[in-house]
Amino acid sequence: MIDLSTKYLGLSLINPLVASSSPLTGNLDDTKRLEDAGIAAIVLPSLFEENINQEQQQLEHYVHSQALGHNEAESYHPVPENYKSEIETYLEYIQALKSNLSIPVIASLNGVTDSGWVDYGKELMQAGADALELNVYYVAADPEQSGEQVEERYIHLLERLRKQVSIPIAMKISSQFSSVANMLKRFQASGADGVVLFNRFYQPDINLETLKINPHIELSTPIESLVRIRWIALMRSRVELSLAATGGFHTVESIIKALLAGADAVYLCAVLLNHGTEYCVELLRQLDLWLTEHEYESIEQLQGSVSQSCVIDPAVYEHSNYKDVIKSYK
Amino acid sequence: MSKSQKIILDGNQAAATVAHLTNEVIAIYPITPASPMGEWADEWSSRQQPNLWGTVPEIIEMQSEGGAAGAIHGALQAGSLTTTFTASQGLLLMIPNMFKIAGELSPAVFHVAARSVAAQALSIFGDHSDVMTARSTGFAFLCSNSPQEVMDMALIAQCVTLESKIPVLHFFDGFRTSHEVAKVDSIGTDVMQKMIDFRFVKEHRQRALSSDHPVLRGSSQNPDVFFQARESVNAYYQALPAIVQKTMDTFAELTGRQYKIFDYIGAADAERIIILMGSGAETAQETVEYLVSQGEKIGLLKVRLFRPLDSVSLIGAIPASIKKIAVLDRTKEPGADGEPLYKDVATALMQHFSGESNKFSTLPLVVGGRYGLSSKEFTPGMVKAIYDELKTTSPKNNFTIGINDDVTHTSLSWDASFRTNAQKNTFQAVFYGLGSDGTVSANKNSIKIIGECTDKYVQGYFVYDSKKSGAVTISHLRFGEDPIHSTYLIGNDDADFVACHQPVFLERYPMLDKAADNAVFLLNTPVEKKSVWSSLPATMQQQILDKKIRLYVIDAYKVASETGMNKRINTIMQTCFFSISGVLPKDDAINSIKQAVEKTYGKKGKQLIDLNYKAIDQTLLNLYEVDVPGKVSSKIQLQKSITDSASDFVKNVTAEIIAGRGDAIPVSLFPVDGSYPLGTAAYEKRNLALEIPVLDEGLCSQCGKCPLVCPHGVIRSKVFDESKLESAPESFKSMPVKGKDFSKTLRITYQVSPEDCTGCGLCADICPIHDKSNVSHKALDMVAYTPELREQEKLNWNYFLDLPEYDRGLIKSNTIKGAMLLQPLFEFSGACEGCGETPYIKLASQLFGDRMIVANATGCSSIYGGNLPTTPWTKNAQGRGPAWSNSLFEDNAEFGLGMRLSIDKQKQYASELLQGLKNQLDDKLVNEILSADESTEEGITQQRTRIDKLCEQLAAIKTVEARELETVADKLSRKSVWIIGGDGWAYDIGYGGLDHVLASGRDVNILVLDTEVYSNTGGQTSKATPRGAVAKFSAGGKPSPKKDLALLAMDYENVYVAHVAYGARDIQTLHAFNEAEAYAGPSLIIAYSPCIAHGIDLKNNHQHQQMAVDSGHWPLFRYNPENAKQGINPLHLDSKAPSVPYREFVETEIRFNMLWRTHPEVAEKLLEQSQEDVLHRYHYYEQLANLPYGEVVDQTGITQPPHRKLASVIKQQLAQDLHNTKEADEKKSTSKKGGQND
After folding, report:
1. Whole-model pTM?
2. What residue of A is the nearest CA neighbor of B599?
3. ipTM here
4. By the 8 A CB rule, do B536 and B544 touch?
5. Among A98, A323, B735, B938, which is least packed, fewest CB within 10 Å?
6. For the segment B973-1023, what is each residue's pLDDT rounded down to a tens digit?
7. Buried b or exposed e, range B975-990, using 16+ CB within 10 angstroms
């Protein structure tokens, strides 16, 4: 029997497969199915402070302040007694998951303001989340803002949150940093427990009929896994953070590669959406089979064995290796 | 005595509180000002709040008050404790059932926020004309004069009805009491339980109809017995007054508040008294107490139990010293020699005086008077004037007080400056705000804070104008050490605090008229500190100097913007009030505001709490006092509300009402039949917009969409000859008109009326033309409304108005561009910014306005269409335009049909006369008139010319017939009857009539402005409300689907039906209007009308319409019976099968998505059903639209109409099948027989 267990963010996972933020982790039935299929932890869909604020503004406009200024009607909408706000629903959901699942539940937060990050972070912890993933999505479009200032935003919010939150914190970031390596070092120094590499974002798309901009997202493709594997391999020996790979992990092969590169956990999303939650069973079976066939005893044994510090030609991870690729065409 | 808690509420809430606790079934229908009572009850029941017996009352909203009364009658017969809330016309609709309920001695209380009954005009305000109309029903009538009394009397009424078996109509003055916020002693449930004797509840239940002990109740009786049976209840009515008094005494023991069925206040040896009931009694009490303290021998008798009238107690309550009595009625019975209470008192006195024991030495002189109709002010000065009149040797009888009747001279004059000493220990504050700026809600909140934090008595009363966009609100707040009896507005020179929340009011309202000496004036203005003084009008500066007013200033919009509050200034202005008024210690007050903020938003609104806190703190830093210079320096004068070119009527009446001086207009200036001139909204320049549209004529494609969608008719197009440009202002924009129908010298313009624009932005939103290099720039952009732009566009607009209208005969009205060249005869309405209804009305007015007669159901459209001071309905240069009238809510279809019948009858009569006079007239002319084709603009114009000629010829004929014909000749030209109303009318209260009118086959056009809720009264559920929508009375989401009115109408086969949404497909809407008008039978246009009640921002109105169509919520189609005659299927679908998931549609509207936050599982289930509904409906329509049509002649030779054709096809098929089966059976049988033979 191969030992598939791993440690991620200080949490003991029965295997390295984590259900990433997705509609599947947004309802109790699917999360139960995921657990039954062997998933080791789930990351909830992000709680967006922007949405909470927008909801509050809407409530203010349409419910609290229905100032009509007319004799015949003071309001239009009954003020609902049992209204459950987005944040209340989210917190109750965490509680429901905790009482229904035995696997770790990782809450995900996307804040806007300092106080938003901290206050909601605390509430997620109090509701019972086992860890907190910070879905830091920031488009640095202000020409007056330097790269350093952008980086400082990340560090600042992490530091503030670290002081208030005792559960593990993972930073889910994009690859768009001048120095990913340096950022990870700084995250570590500021109290992060792990990083999730790399975030994928909605991209605006232009509607050719209306000329309006629509947000747009596509599920990941397998090719995207390579950049994640590379950075995990590069960083494995350079930081003491938990490393999770996310984006493009659709096959057992890519999962094994991520683990070889040094991932503590591998996030799954598109593959589960495409093939169903039960596909996790198949992936685990294939993982077990591969490990058996290749005579590994445990995941731990395999993890990081092809990271940059262990690999035969470490420079390859760092070189702009397209020269070799091109040559290989001949 | 039970300990009570002080609570702050208004009269409606007070009544609803007791009613909900003491009843099991509540059947209601919304009507102003009673609607909030039903809403409260519904809210409490939806929160599972139980009644005294621990069960949650069942609330049902009916289709009309008539329906509610029927349901109540039934519920009472079946043994439930049952109640309702209503007013005005609603009460009148209940009257037939009230006779039954009383006739059967069924205990029930009807709570009535008494309101005027519509006569020469509708009015939503308070008087007793409704309750007086119901006084013969057999109900007992109990009156409350203040919110405290409403709560107390509601309970007393409930106890009385149970014990006496006689139903009680408990009434209080609409608005003045129903909407006055006050601090009252609540009644604990312990008191209620002690008051209500369960024996009587049991008796009521035992009398319930039950199949376990059946009876027959409600028989039909003959002359032999009806009379006696009617008299059989007398003993119950005789017993009632004593039961009321006994109940009042028990109530006093438990609460300390003692009432008498007739309460006397004043001097024991009074020689002059006033008798009245209702809120006016409070003002009278305040005045009497003051005047008695000044040594006057006067008194006041408050009537609480009006029916049954206990004349013995009435006489008993009047001091023996009395010499003269004035009885005041808050109602008018035209033609009567006195109003009801006056006659009752006079009769009682006469009976007493002619009886055996007489307490009076001489028969007191009794006069009657009318006061306070439709919430007309009733002040201490008026009360004193009545006592003074009684001093005269022959006081006026049948007098009026509060108006200037310069025609029949009924009115008493009064001293407006007379004051009691009631305000000695009272702080009075007046706030001027906009309906949308939250001033009223902030003030209600301030009342709560002061009421709850101190022992002070509080009073809040709120006055609104009649507009729905940019409505002005004036809040009147009083806080005092003594109970407040002042049921009148804060008068001139009385306010200790005056606040102007909108800088634009400075030039509009003489706000400081209200200010007392040494008052504080708080002004919200963006003007810099150093310029504030010079920005005030000269009169205001003078008043500040004369009255030594302290001036405080804040730029609230700046603070709001800087603290993330956007345009919400309510908390900011509230902070200012507490900070400078001194009504509470400042720090306590600020803490209380913060606590109130937290209470409002709770855990759900962290961000809002933070923003409000920030705003409060910033307010304190930005509020400052202005050093007032010693002299007046301003040249600014108050704006005139009306231009000099207006008619005398407009100047003397309309302008005075606009200026807030309507109270002073004398009787002689009013039209006696309620007819008012059109076009007056054009005088009222409201300058509401923050941004207005600006045209880029280089980009404009001349599509005409912008004028089509403008809800307020402020953007217009006109085609004119280029020669006119010579006198055009420099900034006037126009372009050569495109299209082969126009000559090369013609130009077209799209011009906005800047001062009438509300800035809703819908014109720019619909504009389809983008700059190819910058999509954010369109042919029409919204641009900041600066003073410079205002002046420039005013010039352009005036120039535009002077351009002649383009010849209607040359316009292709079946294109949007063409139709929009027609002059709108509905303009500048006060509807909500971005209203989804008004574009339809405006379109009809453009297409047919010069021949329209409009029957308008009560509702939003009758308010923005016909609420004084002004009307958006207008006429063209020839003086033609829509003639408009509103009858009621429930009868609009019948009202319109009556118009049609009348016009058709007159046309027929005119034709008959014309035939008869044929020999004396131009033969050709007569024939042409009688056979005229008026299906085109040209045809109509020609017919009008012919009629003019006819009239000329008639003048020379000296016969009676010629004179007769002259009176009806105008009916020989086409008249278009439009029946307009909302879904509450068409789907609910007026459906029976609508159905009858559809069935009548008469040529009327019915426009249903479907907002899917009762918009005007505040968003209550109608049968047009879609499944899953949250509305009042559907707090848990409406479980049943929207009624398919179109399908019901199509079932008649001879009704033109269209389902339109102009924001989704404007050309389909246009075709529908043209086809409806062209169709010679009944036409029904059901028009999707986004409304603020949907919980949407109306600037996105068009997107919501598009989503409604694309999701299948609002399929577009037209059913034209004319097509069937030509063998074409009459139903044509104009929208495609649903292409957007229903979820996407409902997610964008609060009315739907609220349910996900309150009842997520129900929401999902209802969504699923709604999705099925829309798919099913589309599929069903698709099948109907694809039914084969054509020449179908059945076996008898009769051509079958299409629906029956399907049936006949099926029948034929069935017959064939049957025939085949028989044949087969026969063959079988034959073969069997053969077999046997074999």
Report:
1. 0.93
2. A64
3. 0.84
4. yes
5. A323
6. 999 999 999 999 999 999 999 999 999 999 999 999 999 999 999 999 999
7. bbbbbbbbbbbbbbbb
